[in-house]
Design a protein that fits this description.
Length: about 650
């Protein structure tokens, strides 16, 4: 699916004459307060690496002459900044840097052949990434074998003297960046064009270094076929086709996560049999659906910070926009005049200013009180540099729903009407006040152009949700930074109750039920350069078709350096009809048990490796172990970075053994 999406983007960009994309984002999100968390894949480096590698492969295509140069960003550690603040320093040692923040970039360079990399704004241990020769040359090129182009994040070169203060002049900044291995200054040449001549005269940089950067850029342009086909064919441009809209719908549907559900979802044709059983009331009360919340009837709420809608069109009232129905539109299409609506409150009073207007809460609450079901659509409004509640430069000090939205949700919940909270958002909020009180919680993130239709399909049961959380839903900003693969003492001593997640990494419910059985691990012991196969059977034990995401975690209980409590090392989407089963197998090379050792070399150590297979990091269904036997082995740059995964359907009735 990811490669399919990137392939569409490739064809669209090529059609309009573009040759390079400033994507994908390979940052590993460790702090939900960071505004750009909405652009990331999630908090797990292996997952991020798998996703961005597939995205790179789709963008660049099988032949780069018809492809788009993918740009990995932001190299490196941008999402781990101090306090989740944009541009702030990264406080990470070389081991965490290698095993967490660098891993997705390494995977995308080595396995997908990414042709471009963009530096991160921040500094690592006092050295800005834009001026780090160790990062941009010694590691990226000399160790990993990257042979593409390094480009600057916008204005990053001038920041060397304006913000980081490691240089004094544009010429010195240009020289420092070029010497580090940064080939192209973006978005314009503020330091390179006026400053490199002076830098050459002063001996700050030599001509050979400049020639090398020029050679890299020309090599990429030749590979892209820019000189053979410099112009686009305007008559051949076709965007927003029926097939592309259908893909957008499928992507949105698969990304929606059902966080909680006491049985109110899916809504049945009578609107809610569950609601009818729970509440005594007149027929019109059980028939009505109150759709409430500031994101219920706002098309722009469906899109993230860097979408065309929010990044470009929102600043130009006459800009053309592809149609994007709202959640209210989509529910009215399915449920007709049974739907009643009140926004309740706004998220923003003006750009960058969170609304404190409570005047609409009473009317919204009255609608909810007289309805059979209330659907409250809340969350974020994306925007740049404090023009929204999430997005670049829109960092947060709190993980509460912005503005007076918590009061709106509380007021609706207090009515006693079964309430479904739908989150259209860019960050994982603290849902501890809502979980356990809401009848259901649906997480839609920013689902895009056909996202509202996908939300409505999930709510009404036309679609069975299958998404999983890629970020931990923590109990407030005080738990930040927070990730499921924390170290043993991360929760403090004595353990802080607030460190326990509201919803764990990998969590997501469906409208059916899956059983796990027959875990097999063979062989029982492997050499430090060997491989093990881990397999289990997954069965749909429910009454409707559904998709499970089977997750494989490994634990290294004793090692020469402290290790995470668990690490994702494989996953597979398994679609099953009612009663059907499949055998899911992961071939795991010992390299996937490796880590950066005490001497900062990557090693595989002998010892026991514990295996967990389940529906989330907090829902382990099967457990076992295997041993690594032999002498410690240093891994080369050609180490295995991902498992081989297979899913095979089983004949009807085949499965026995231990279940979970």
């Amino acid at each position: 699916m990811i490669r399919e999406v990137a392939d569409v983007i490739r064809r669209q960009l090529r059609a309009v004459g573009a040759h390079q994309a400033l994507a994908p984002v390979a940052d590993v999100a460790r702090d939900a307060r960071w505004g750009r968390v909405e652009e990331t894949v999630g908090e797990d480096p292996f997952l991020v690496g798998q996703v961005v590698s597939a995205y790179v492969a789709g963008l660049q295509g099988d032949d780069l002459r018809d492809g788009i140069a993918a740009t990995l960003k932001h190299f490196c550690g941008y999402a781990g900044s101090e306090g989740g603040r944009n541009f702030a320093p990264l406080h990470a040692g070389p081991r965490e840097l290698a095993d967490v923040f660098l891993l997705p970039f390494e995977m995308a360079v080595k396995t997908a052949g990414a042709r471009s990399v963009m530096n991160a704004y921040l500094e690592i241990d006092g050295v800005p990434c834009a001026a780090s020769r160790w990062l941009l040359t010694e590691l990226l090129r000399e160790r990993w074998g990257f042979d593409g182009v390094v480009v600057a994040d916008y204005f990053a070169v001038r920041m060397l003297h304006q913000l980081h203060r490691v240089t004094e002049t544009p010429a010195e900044s240009a020289a420092a960046a070029l010497r580090a291995g940064l080939d192209v200054e973006l978005p314009m040449s503020e330091c390179y064009q006026p400053g490199l001549g002076e830098a050459l005269e002063r001996g700050l940089v030599d001509a050979a270094t400049l020639d090398t950067a020029v050679r890299r850029v020309l090599r990429l342009k030749f590979a892209l076929g820019v000189f053979e086909r410099p112009y686009a064919d305007a008559g051949a441009i076709e965007l927003d086709t029926a097939a592309e809209r259908a893909l957008a719908r499928r992507v949105a549907e698969q990304s929606i996560v059902l966080l909680a559900n006491d049985g109110v979802l899916p809504l049945d044709p009578g609107i809610s049999a569950v609601a009818s059983r729970r509440r005594a009331g007149s027929p019109h009360q059980t028939r009505r659906v109150a759709v409430i919340g500031p994101n219920a009837h706002d098309a722009l709420a469906l899109f993230g910070n860097y979408s065309y809608q929010n990044h470009v069109a929102s600043h130009f009232p006459d800009a053309p926009l592809a149609p994007a129905p709202t959640v209210l539109d989509a529910l009215r299409e399915r449920l007709g005049d049974r739907v009643v609506h009140a926004p309740g409150c706004a998220i923003l009073a003006a750009k960058g200013q969170v609304s404190d207007d409570r005047s609409g809460i009473a009317a919204a609450t009255a609608l909810a009180r007289d309805a059979g079901v209330a659907i409250v659509v809340v969350g974020d409004k994306a925007g740049h540099f404090r023009t929204g509640t999430v997005g670049e430069g829109s960092d947060a000090a709190s993980l509460d729903l912005p503005g007076v939205q918590p009061e709106l949700v509380d007021a609706v919940l207090a009515t006693g009407t079964p309430t479904v909270v739908v989150l259209v958002c860019g960050r994982p909020f603290d849902l501890s006040r809502i979980a356990g009180r809401a009848a259901a919680i649906v997480l839609a993130w920013f689902p895009g152009q056909d996202g509202a239709a996908a939300i409505a399909d999930v709510l009404t049961g036309a679609a069975n949700p299958s998404g999983k959380t890629t970020l931990t839903f923590a109990r407030g900003a005080g738990a930040m930074p927070r990730s499921y693969d924390a170290k043993p003492l991360a929760q403090g001593v004595p353990p802080q109750p607030a460190y326990e997640p509201v919803f764990p990494f990998g969590h997501g419910l469906t409208y059916t039920r899956f059983e796990y059985a027959d875990l097999a691990i063979a062989p029982a012991a492997i050499a430090p350069d060997g491989a093990v196969e881990i397999a289990c059977t997954v069965r749909n034990a429910g009454a409707r078709a559904g998709t499970e995401v089977v997750q494989l975690y490994l634990r290294d209980p004793v090692a020469s350096v402290t290790r995470p409590l668990r690490q994702l090392r494989g996953f597979a989407r398994v679609a099953l009809a009612p009663g059907a089963a499949a055998r899911v197998a992961f071939r795991v090379h010992a390299d996937l048990c490796s880590f950066t050792g005490a001497d900062l070399a990557r090693i595989v150590e002998p010892g026991r490796i514990e295996v967990e297979v389940g529906a989330s990091s907090g829902d382990v269904r099967l457990a076992g172990a295997f041993d690594v036997e032999g002498e410690p082995r240093r891994c080369g740059e050609d180490r295995v970075l991902a498992p081989e995964v297979s899913v095979a359907a089983l004949p009807s009735g085949q499965s026995s053994g231990r279940r979970g």
